[in-house]
Design goal:
The chain is α/β, with parallel strands linked by helices. Helix 8 runs antiparallel to helix 9. The termini are far apart.
């Protein structure tokens, strides 16, 4: 090649559009685009094989160039129509836009949106059919994802509503219980006045009021923190996190009540047992009435004592329904107070809760109930109640298995039979018994 011919060749290259910035960018974008790009002549032989053709159809560029596209990936029953369309495009220039086709390559059948039109071969100057295709085989899965997003959004809205109700219920329950303590303070202050122990009483009363006020502030802070967490979580569209938030709410409320009841009960017992000045005969009845009134407001509405093998099938379902009716902190069920029960001398602690802090104790009976270690611990406190004529109506028996428990005779001691088929009915009967006891002792 002479120097003149070389200069002419370079000028020819410089005049080609692909050397401009715009066209170089177009080529770069096309190479990265997620669609197929191919072209064929009037004999249906592939002349261009680019972009995602190899990924979608399974043929490399070397395998595709020069081969008949009809036999490569067009379904047999569609080949005649595809052949006529190709000739119509090349000979008459009639394009086809946004048509849906089912192509069958090495990687199986794919649904494709195609745009077919005529172009001129830059080397032979003959017309070709060019096709740009977009794989839409995964539209169904994308629609499923969209439906899942909609469903998750609805679940999120429902969970937010339920959480809001739970928070308000917890606030109300806490305030009611705190007010109950304050009512006891007012009632006993008058009795302390009668017994000439005002100064000692006021000193202890101030400590108890300080406990209540402190726990009120702690509780308010916990509720505010939970509400902030809900607000933050709502914007992230993660509804499954609501279960974590609900669990955190239950745990925090349990801890708040534990501190309030343990601290306040200890101080209250000190108030009741004050003997700074000798009690006169006419004052003994006042103190006796005061101690009796103290039993009317206990920490738990309902306590559950049961053998572990019936937890999943019956007891857990009953506990959930009772917690929904009242609240978890008012049901003595081990799963609701795990942090509190991780302690030394739990056996003694549990006996106190069953004996002194539960309005109604529901005992799930089976033949091995009293020989099981934890049931035996609870049973000692419960038997003390059954042997006391004024307290025995605080115990309710539910039969969950065969056999009898020592000291209980199912032929003469009334009981309810529970199975996994009548859990709702059994729960309603427990609630009814609790309501009956409240009326009797009001």
């Amino acid at each position: 090649m002479t120097k003149k011919e070389l200069i002419q060749y370079i000028e020819k290259l410089m005049n080609q559009r692909a050397f401009s910035y715009e066209d170089r960018m177009k080529l770069l974008i096309i190479d990265k685009a997620p669609f197929t790009l191919w072209a064929c002549d009037k004999e249906f032989k592939i002349k261009l094989w680019a972009c995602q053709c190899e990924n979608m159809y399974g043929y490399s560029k070397d395998e595709a160039i020069g081969n008949n596209y009809l036999t490569m990936f067009v379904a047999p029953d569609e080949q005649v129509a595809s052949k006529n369309d190709c000739l119509n495009i090349i000979e008459n220039g009639t394009p086809f836009y946004n048509c849906v086709a089912q192509d069958e390559g090495r990687k199986g059948t794919r649904n494709v949106i195609t745009n077919c039109f005529r172009v001129r071969d830059v080397e032979t100057d003959e017309f070709l059919q060019a096709e740009i295709g977009l794989d839409i085989s995964n539209l169904d899965s994308e629609k499923e994802k969209y439906d899942n997003v909609i469903m998750t959004s609805k679940q999120l809205s429902q969970a937010k509503h339920e959480l809001s109700e739970r928070i308000e219920l917890s606030i109300k329950t806490f305030i009611d219980r705190a007010n109950a303590f304050e009512d006891k303070l007012i009632n006993n202050e008058s009795k302390a006045l009668t017994m000439h122990r005002r100064q000692e009483y006021i000193k202890s009363e101030s400590s108890l009021k300080a406990v209540i006020e402190r726990e009120r502030r702690n509780f308010d802070n916990n509720i505010n923190n939970i509400r902030c967490a809900v607000k933050t979580m709502s914007s992230s569209q993660e509804s499954n996190n609501f279960e974590i938030i609900l669990t955190e709410l239950d745990n925090r409320v349990d801890m708040d009540f534990k501190r309030l009841y343990l601290d306040a009960d200890e101080l209250y017992d000190n108030i009741i047992s004050m003997d700074v000045i000798p009690i006169q005969n006419d004052e003994k009845e006042i103190l006796k009435d005061d101690q009796m009134s103290n039993t009317n407001i206990r920490r738990f509405r309902i306590a559950l004592s049961f053998p572990g093998e019936y937890r999943d099938s019956i007891v857990n379902h009953v506990a959930e329904r009772l917690a929904k009716k009242y609240s978890r902190e008012e049901i003595l069920y081990d799963f609701y107070h795990q942090a509190e029960f991780a302690r030394c001398d739990l056996d003694i602690y549990l006996q106190k809760l069953y004996r002194n802090e539960s309005d109604l104790i529901v005992v799930f009976l089976c033949k091995d109930y009293d020989v099981k270690s934890w049931c035996g611990v609870e049973w000692r406190a419960i038997r003390d109640l059954t042997n006391n004529k004024t307290e025995r109506d605080r115990v309710m028996f539910i039969q969950v298995g065969d056999g009898e428990v020592e000291g209980i005779f199912t032929t003469v001691d009334g009981h309810i039979t529970a199975t996994d088929d009548n859990i709702e009915s059994v729960t309603n009967l427990i609630i009814k018994r609790y309501d009956i006891n409240r009326v009797v002792h009001s």
